[in-house]
Amino acid sequence: MLSGFNHLTLAVTDVPRSVSFYHDLLRLQLDATWDNGAYLSLPGLWLCLSLDPLRSTAPAVDYTHYAFTVDAADFTPLVEHLRAAGVQEWRDNRSEGASFYFLDPDGHKLEVHVGDLASRLQACRAQPYAGMKFYPPR
User: Fold this and answer.
1) Based on the number of CB atoms within 10 Å of its own CB, is 12 exposed (0-12), middle (13-18) or buried (19 or more)?
2) Which of 80, 89, 96, 111 is labelled catalytic?
3) Are residues 40 and 59 in the same domain?
4) Which of 75, 46, 42, 62 is nearest to 107 (CA)?
5) Among 22, 54, 77, 100, which one is least packed by beta carbons within 10 Å?
C-alpha cells in the first residue's frame, strides 16, 4: 500500500543554474550536490535535480505543473521577488486561492499557491466543475 509521495526528479540542463534557482531564489534547503545533480528539500518534499542533456527547455504544451504552498501573508512579497528576478509567467490564475504560475530555467511549469485540498474542495462544492462528484473519506 502506498503511504505517501517519495520524491520528485526534474531533468535539468545546467545543474548549478537550477540549484541557484531552487535554493537561492525559491529558498529550498540544499542537501547535497554532485557533478550531475542535487538534492533539495522542503517539509514533505524531496526534490532531485538530475542533469539530462536531452532535456528541452521549451515548456510543455500541456497543463502538467508542480505547485508549492505559500502562506497568504508571504504570497505578494514572493510574487514580487520572483517577478523582480525575471521569471517567466505561463498562466493567469483561474482557480480558488491566490496562485502565481511561472517557469523554472528548464521550462518546468511551477506554481505558488495559497490554499490546500480542503479549501479547493470547499470552493468546488460551492461551484462544482462540470460533472464533478465528491467521495467520502476512507
Assistant:
1) buried
2) 111
3) no
4) 62
5) 54
- Give the residue numbers spanning the domain of 33: 1-53
- What are the φ and ψ backbone dihedral angles of 85, each rounded to 5 degrees? -80, -5
> Quick one: 5 and 65 in the same domain?
no
- pLDDT per residue as tens digits for the range 2-17: 888 899 999 999 999 9
111 catalytically annotated: yes
Q: Is the pLDDT of residue 96 over 90?
A: no
Q: Looking at the structure, do residues 121 and 108 belong to the same domain, yes or no?
A: yes
For 15, the enclosing helix (H) or strand (E) is: helix 15-19
Q: What is the Cα–Cα distance from 8 to 66, expressed in whole angstroms?
A: 10
